[in-house]
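seq as requested:
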Amino acid sequence: MGIWDYICSSADSLKRNAPDLKPIRDLYSTSYAHGSSAATSIGNAVKDNANKLHTLTQYLPDQEAQHKIFRFTSCLAKNAAFESVKFFPGGEFTRKIVAMSYEDVYKSKNDNDQVQVEKKKALDGTQGRGRSKM
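struct tokens:
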């Protein structure tokens, strides 16, 4: 009896003593079937209600309210991320760097906005003076 016979006999004994995998295959097959049917049901519901979407627009907030909601949620997400960084090793140092960078960017953005507002006021003032009244 050589080494090859020993390996083959070991493999055969493992196959004989291994449990039957049919119940496990059936379990996975059943769970896949349920998941697939749930996804199909959701997809059909979305398709059916996609045409009714235009009726929901009356309940959506106006542009100003949407802008306020966007500003609040983006500020909330930024602050949550900013505060959670300090719980990681080296997070306090990173937090300080991000704070300084954010302040620099925010200041430059406000400066640019201020300059543009002044330019617009200047343009509005010069355009209004040159018109003649009839």
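The CA atoms of residues 3 and 56 lie 75 Å apart.
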